[in-house]
Amino acid sequence: MKCAHRWLAAGAVAFAIASPAQAAWPERPITLIIPAAPGGTTDISARLIADKLSAKLGQQVIVENRAGAAGIIGAQALARAKPDGYTLLMGNIGPNAINYALYKTLPYKPADFAPVTLVISVPNVLVVNEASPARSVSDLLAQARQEPAKVSFGSSGAGQSPHLSAEMFKQRAGIPGTHVAYKGAGPAVAALLGQQFTFMIDNLPSSMPYIQSGKLRALAVTSDKRLAELPDVPTMAEAGVKDMVVTAWFGLVAPAGTPQDAIDKLYAATRDVVRSPEISERFRSMGGQAGGNTPAEFTAFIDQERTRWKTIVDAAGLAQEQ
Known about the structure:
By secondary structure, this protein is of the alpha/beta class. The protein has eleven helices and ten strands. It has helices at residues 2-18, 41-57, 72-80, 93-102, 137-146, 161-173, 185-193, 204-213, 260-274, 277-285, 295-316, and strands at 30-34, 61-65, 87-92, 113-129, 152-155, 178-181, 199-203, 216-221, 247-255, 289-290. Strands 1, 2, 3, 4, 5, 6, 7, 8, 9 and 10 form a ten-stranded mixed β-sheet that branches. The radius of gyration is 22 Å and the shape is globular.
């Protein structure tokens, strides 16, 4: 009997070692869902860290764009994904905070997600086409008041921070403006370059190259201080628009129920990547700040953002049926 027990014990150990549940994460490629089209800050930041994460984790991180519906399509895909650490989302202020206030119903809820860490936070920037007669915020406001029916603004999608920032701007400045939504910042910026609307309040990284090349003109930033990268561009407060500080943020989110070991490893790897000299400097050149907070801190931050944006959306009367 003792011999039989030894064989049974040995078999149990062998099964435990071979069992997929015991395999060290990650043992295969990881998919990182981007809930927006290529070219925006969500996409840019995800692609900047994907290769570095692949090297850190020893498995390929595959970036997959699932744009549309204010980030709802991508967020819903994550909520439905198996919680095994192999499907992640580059979450952001839109689908993970603003949407809860903007839409009456959503195909996901906060409890469906396990926040991992903040990747980057950025201010927004008010931009116009280089051909626009507006060379300052006051010029743009004068133009809007003179020809109110002709004023329109673009965004990366209803519910994203560029949309809500522009609605706030309209409120604070007392001007009209028709919203034109696109499936991401990339298409929206392309439309502004083609003079398809009057202005845009974009996440800074997606507009920065065009500001630097002179194709877009920056009129103001939504940060509380001027940016070193755009020292001649005033803050909204300096331009006469009070209470207009907005910070957009982007970070990794996993499905709820993802094993803690996978969350911990992913957090540690992402923190090291975003705080590395190469990536943190790249983020700074885009006008952004590297993240790297703990999962608990990121969870608390997102909770606060949901509450803050509900107040803003309710005050603006922007809630929609869905």
